[in-house]
Amino acid sequence: MSTVENVASDTQAMVRHRFSVAQYHQMIDGGIFAPDDRLELIHGELARMSPINRRHAAGVDRLVYLLLSRLGQKARCRIQNPITLADSEPQPDVAVVRWRDDFYLAGHPTPPDIYWLIEVSDTTITYDRRVKVPLYLKAGIPEVWLINLDEDCLEVYQPGEQQVVRRGQNLSPLQFPELVVSADEMLG
After folding, report:
1. One Pfam family of this protein, by short name (predicted)?
2. How many CB atoms sit inside 10 A of residue 172's CB?
3. Which among 95, 105, 173, 185 is least surrounded, fewest beta carbons within 10 Å?
4. CATH class of the domain at 51-187
5. Please, what is the end-to-end C-alpha distance for the chain in angstroms?
6. Contact predicate 114/96, CB 8 Å
7. Residue 36: which pLDDT band, with cuts at 50, 70 and 90?
8. Which H, E and C letters describe 3-48, residue by residue?
């Protein structure tokens, strides 16, 4: 057997270590990660997050401005902060969550706290569609909006449904049907 074959079979035999959310929190609290590490826990594995470019940052800022002005105190908007799922702790760009006076100091929002999530996507569109959106829906989050900057549209995901909203069209979140926003406002 050649050396290349040995290396390939050894690599296939490697086992990945999965972390629980509690173990992940212990690592954070223990200072295991550098302050500038951009990591999130996805399906029990550490995933490095992409750097935020100007287009992405402007998209998130636009959403925050729009949502805060429309929602008032009906909900909290958490920006790029963790949510806790069974075996994951992702950091969606925007999480619209139930109002809590403690600002979730006692623990990150979990699916029953979450009205809907928004991901702003340009360089991560494939990952967001294949990994993050299914993760969110499987966890019981009722609605996910994917702001697709490359294709200049919004992708709206609900359990068993997907809709594409384009410029000139309006949409409302399931939990706030009175909140009507236009794709033009969301896309800038």
Report:
1. Uma2
2. 11
3. 105
4. alpha beta
5. 59
6. yes
7. confident
8. HHHHHHHHHHHCCCCCCCHHHHHHHHHCCCCCCCCCEEEECCEEEE
Angle at 99 between CA 187 and CA 143, to 5 degrees: 45
What pairs with residue 97 in β-bridges? 76, 114
- What pTM did the predictor assign? 0.87
Tell me the mean pLDDT in the region 156-167. 97
What residues contact residue 133 under an 8 Å CB cut-off, 6+ apart?
Answer: 119, 144, 146, 157
What burial class does residue 116 get, using C-beta atoms within 10 Å of its C-beta: 0-12 exposed, 13-18 middle, 19+ buried? buried
For tokens 């384009």, what's the residue?
166
Tokens standing for residue 165: 């909203």
**Does the CA dihedral 177-178-183-187 come out positive or negative?**
negative
DSSP code string of the chain: --HHHHHHHHHHH--PPP--HHHHHHHHHTT-S-TT--EEEETTEEEEPPPPPHHHHHHHHHHHHHHHHHHTTSSEEEES-----SS-B---SEEEE---TTTTTTS---GGGEEEEEEEESTTHHHIIIIIHHHHHHTT-S-EEEEETTTTEEEEEETTEEEEEETT-EE--TT-TT--EEHHHHH-
Dig out the tokens for 57 from the structure: 């940052």
Q: Where are the domains of the chain?
A: 51-187
